[in-house]
Amino acid sequence: MKLEKQIPYGDSPAPAGPTHLAYRRDIDGLRAIAVLAVVLFHAFPTVLRGGFIGVDIFFVISGFLISSILLRELQHGTFSFAGFYARRVRRIFPALVLVLAACLAFGWLALFPDEYQQLGKHVVGGAGFAANFFYWAQVGYFDTAADTKPLLHLWSLGIEEQFYILWPVILLLGWRLRANLFAVAAILALASFALNVGGIAGHPTATFYSPASRAWELLLGAGLACLHARASAASRRLPVPGPNLLSWLGVALLAAGLASITRASQFPGWYALLPALGALLLIAAGPQAWFNRVVLSNRPMVWVGLVSYPLYLWHWPLLSFAQIIESREPAPAIRAGAVLLALLLAWLTYRVVERPLRGGAARWKVALLSVLMAACAAVAGYIYLNEGLPTRKVVQDNLANQKALVVVEDKANAAACKKRYGFDSMYEYCLQADAVKDPTVVLLGDSHAYHVVAGLTKYYGSVGENLLMLGTRHPYWGLDPEADPYQQATQPMLELALGMPSVKTVVFSTHLRFGTNPDQRVWVDAARDTFRRFIAAGKQVIFMNDVPIIGFDPRSCIKRAGVASSATRVPCAITRAEWEQQVVQHRQVLAGFAREFPQIAWFDSSTALCDNHRCQAMIDGRLMYRDANHLSYEGDLLVGSHFAEWMRQRALSNH
Description:
- By secondary structure, the chain is mainly α.
- Helix content is 59%, strand content 6%.
- The chain has 26 helices and ten strands.
- The chain has a six-stranded mixed beta sheet with strand order 1-3-2-4-5-7, sandwiched between helices. A two-stranded antiparallel sheet has the order 6-8.
- Mean pLDDT is 92; it is low at 1-19.
């Protein structure tokens, strides 16, 4: 393979001529740095903490190369939107269609219905180049849940293609109006950068995923292309002051970014200048600068650069699927194997798929690729709309436990309850057994109240009571909500429960565990004040001590029929000693409360799950948890049945 004859990113092979760019090996070498940084960060995040900035390098490269091609065509009168987007289809679609189809095929064999449904949704987003908007609405890039989204990395592809919807139009208008195109790019870049810096503190997820706050990186490369085009139009080369100095300064900026930027950094923000300017300086330095000529242009770097696009597409689904199958971070050997497999698949994709389909201007290739992409989206949409196809044979054996992993919610009940009590924000939540009658029992708490509401509703309904659940943050009086809208909504709910004359019993259930450290004193004092107020109002107060945190994904207890996994957990439990260790200080505080408030009844939810040796996450083959700390619907009912028996025993002892 003659590397010097390969083509730049986004272009198509063609005979040498005035409308085609000269190939730069060093830019492929820069691509290699970008993709290897991203892959290493995803596979071994502690080794290269700032590796995710490789995407920013890609943005600058893309802006430079694509804009250079557009400007060259404008200069020679050969530009057309049809030709531009046909090239984009031939460049982007072949590898992407293959990866999306492979993900759907693997998901059919290995994923549970809720996982497969989510994958279907994300394939639609990826095929429509809108993945950044999909993830913007769900999680941040660095959230733990991001590890189980096999197509998360397509957010960057979405931003690129959204940019190239508008940028060719702006260039064409500027060209026809004889505007200073460099000035146009610079003004737009400054506006985009201002959005980035202005939004990063208050809206970090939106700033990360929004094309408006990311466009400046592509526009940096585009601005450099405009300078080159201006020099070319004047039949001269763009003067580069000290190419070696520019190159080494670019290397220093990239190294500083890789070493100093971490998940905790407010990124992109000001930090993104390090990779973006570093990449810009390396490109501006030109192919004759020493670092560009010797390091970036060496054969291994160029080879990695040539397969960088399929490598980027393949590596994250492999690592993410490994995380899903293992139900935890895969062992280093598995992650290393995934990276090697990604390299092999990238090379095969480049040789067998990309090169044959990218070349030439045959319309049938564009039509075929467009149909295949639409087919991927259609199949994925069908999977999403049909709840991940739970009738697949490979998931039938464990269907009940797979359903246990999904949150069960009565949305109609919640809507009716919110309407009755005038709750009009997403931060206010309630459920009521009988929406017509006044409540007699209130359950107060966060998601750890919600995960016992079905069992408690069943019990209280059986004895003629009407339970109202009020969803809060920390259900204690007078806490400073600071900027937390859920805590802001909590105080009015506490006041509502306290002021209802029909309510005779108040049950507290929350994930918050008390401690004896001075910095945790605020929670203890707020709880004491809350208990005093409700007791003084004549309410019976019941405190439900929470269930154990099992510390593992209950999915690891379910055998996946379609794929081998080292993670099937036997037993599906933690030791009693582990549970006791979790609540040492919490129980000390509760013991003090029990002495101070003998009127309060204390129910230990763990009695439903724990014996003297273990606390079980699976009982009689059925999952009691839907994640590491929340009960499944069956776990909810089990705790409710133990609560009912505890209440009956209390009633007998009181007689």
